[in-house]
């Protein structure tokens, strides 16, 4: 399927396995936005097994920012439920290594950081619904400009569990009203990619004082005839790690996701029913 936006995205119709091979070879680029349409992309959090039960419960209690799509056994870097020929140590474009709540390194390969007690959590990502919006001809300016989506910390607190607590983080995309309605309708059908937005139109209500200064990603202009639309974001666990300070953790770098073999449920019907629709 080719349209004016997806034509700019060379790996939009690539298979997840192809994207993972590119990541493994260091050839994917730093972000996975616009890749492997129709499949779930995942934020990654790797923690020592001693913290796994608490973080699992944290995800279950905070399903909007942390929609759980997979969890490994301790030391298992394959996570075969999410993909054949998948290696969690090499198949993301970029990882972050954390010690005592501080990000101490970014690297494209964590084989030398791997520990046999690590449990990996895969959490759904908004890039999955972005691909659906692109397929349905809903324009997104940050993709058109080749920029990262703007991401902000909010004043909304996650439900704490054990040592894990911190703010909900959101991503923002501006839309004119008719496209905002379509974006809400489409994203609502993909709960594993954060589902519906959590705020529309009033950033100050969720503690965002300056929409032009995101905490992560790149600024995206909100035109006078547009509404800023905010979705819960999978960077939330990184804000939680900074607050809870576990002795060791590994995460994806913002924008650098694991592309899984898990299809978006009902994706073809979703696109067929929403593509070109006028509100």
UniProtKB/TrEMBL annotation:
<dbReference type="InterPro" id="IPR038021">
    <property type="entry name" value="Putative_hydro-lyase"/>
</dbReference>
<dbReference type="InterPro" id="IPR009906">
    <property type="entry name" value="D-Glu_cyclase"/>
</dbReference>
<dbReference type="Pfam" id="PF07286">
    <property type="entry name" value="D-Glu_cyclase"/>
</dbReference>
<comment type="similarity">
    <text>Belongs to the D-glutamate cyclase family.</text>
</comment>
<dbReference type="GO" id="GO:0016829">
    <property type="term" value="F:lyase activity"/>
</dbReference>
<dbReference type="InterPro" id="IPR016938">
    <property type="entry name" value="UPF0317"/>
</dbReference>
<keyword id="KW-0456">Lyase</keyword>
<protein>
    <recommendedName>
        <fullName>Putative hydro-lyase HLH33_15175</fullName>
        <ecNumber>4.2.1.-</ecNumber>
    </recommendedName>
</protein>
């Amino acid at each position: 399927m080719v349209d004016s936006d997806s034509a700019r995205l060379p790996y939009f119709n690539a298979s997840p396995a192809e994207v993972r091979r590119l990541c493994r070879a260091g050839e994917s680029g730093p972000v996975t936005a616009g890749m492997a349409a129709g499949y779930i992309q995942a934020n990654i959090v790797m923690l020592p097994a001693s913290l796994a039960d608490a973080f699992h419960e944290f995800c279950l209690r905070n399903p909007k920012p942390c929609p759980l799509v997979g969890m490994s056994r301790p030391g298992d870097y394959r996570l075969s439920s999410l993909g054949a020929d998948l290696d969690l140590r090499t198949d993301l474009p970029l990882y972050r290594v954390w010690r005592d709540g501080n990000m101490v390194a970014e690297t494209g390969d964590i084989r030398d950081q791997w520990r046999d007690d690590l449990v990996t959590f895969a959490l759904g990502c908004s890039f999955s619904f972005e691909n659906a919006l692109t397929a349905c001809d809903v324009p997104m300016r940050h993709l058109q400009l080749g920029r990262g989506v703007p991401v902000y910390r909010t004043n909304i607190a996650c439900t704490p569990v054990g040592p894990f607590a911190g703010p909900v983080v959101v991503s923002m995309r501006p839309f004119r009203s008719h496209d905002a309605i379509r974006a809400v309708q489409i994203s609502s059908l993909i709960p594993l990619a954060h589902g519906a937005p959590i705020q529309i139109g009033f950033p100050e209500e969720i503690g965002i004082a300056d929409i032009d200064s995101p905490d992560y990603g790149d600024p995206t202009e909100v035109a006078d005839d547009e509404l800023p639309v905010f979705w819960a974001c999978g960077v939330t666990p990184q804000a939680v790690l900074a607050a809870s300070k576990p002795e060791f953790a590994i995460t994806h770098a913002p924008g650098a996701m694991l592309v899984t073999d898990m299809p978006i449920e009902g994706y073809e019907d979703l696109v067929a029913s929403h593509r070109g629709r006028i509100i």
